[in-house]
Every structure is written in structure tokens, then in C-alpha cells.
Amino acid sequence: MSAPLVVLVGPMGVGKSTVGLLLAERLGVAYRDTDEDIVTEQGRAIAEIFVDEGESAFRAIEKAAVARALGAHEGVLALGGGAILDEDTRALLDGLKVVYLSMDVEEAVKRTGLNQARPLLAVNPRKQWRELMEARRHLYESIATAVVATDGRTPEEVTQVALDALELKEA
Length: 171
What we know:
Blueprint: E1 6-9, H1 16-27, E2 31-33, H2 34-42, H3 46-53, H4 55-72, E3 76-78, H5 87-93, E4 98-102, H6 105-112, H7 125-143, E5 146-149, H8 155-166
Helix pairs in contact: 1-8, 2-4, 3-4, 4-5
């Protein structure tokens, strides 16, 4: 069974897509994002799935998409911010090189504006972001091979820190 070379986890807006693409390029492998897989497969935005079917229906779709990607993708894989909430998903990540990209709330505000199509942050985004992170931080940390703070760093700097932390050689 194949497995990703690197899996990126972290909150929405932390830069998983940007860093993932850079990592894949530097490692000479393909990049894949499970959120993009879901949008393609479902033919609609994630926010629409949340609105139309609710969070639990989305999480079931996400769990299946993540399991498929983990079993089939050998490059850099980025997971949606909440994918790690699922215990089975966390078990699948065991033994893989997982990088948790972290940021504080001020960085999140700068990056996401906390007002875009983020279904879990619709009302009082700062407070909700803090609560989401309090609920998720320990899960991210529990599965991470390396934790890389993104605050005040460029995507290139984050990529280099991740490569160094994982002791991966560039292609």
C-alpha cells in the first residue's frame, strides 16, 4: 500500500495549500489536497455541503476522501482543518510524516480575514477560531511528527523549516 511522503495538517488559512505545493516542488513529488478532492467529487463548495447537509454529513464525506487519498497518494497531501477530529483518520496517520502548521489568532485574522466562506466561523470569528483551536490543538500535536509555526514566516521559510524538521532531502 502506498502512503504520502508528507501529510500537512493545521487550521484553515494556515497555508497548507501554499506550503504543500512548495514542498511537493522541492521534493519532486505530486501535491494533493483532500478539500479539493471533495469539491471535485461533490461538484460543490465545502461551505455548500455544510449548509445543505450539515457538519456531520460533511465529516463523513471528508473521512472517506482522506482515507482514499492516504491509500493512493505518494506525494505531499494536505488535509482539511477538521479532518483530524476523526479517530480513524488519526489512526491512519500513525507512522506517517505529519507536519502540523500552526498559527496564532492574530495571524489567522491577517490571513483569512476570518470572514470568508468559512462555515465554522460565521459568527464572532475570533472567538470561534480560538475555541476551534482549543478543541483541536492537542489533536494536531498528538499526530504531528513536526510542528512548524507559520507566524511571521514566508511560505518559503515554512517549507524549509518543515524539510529540515523531517530531515527530507530535496529532489
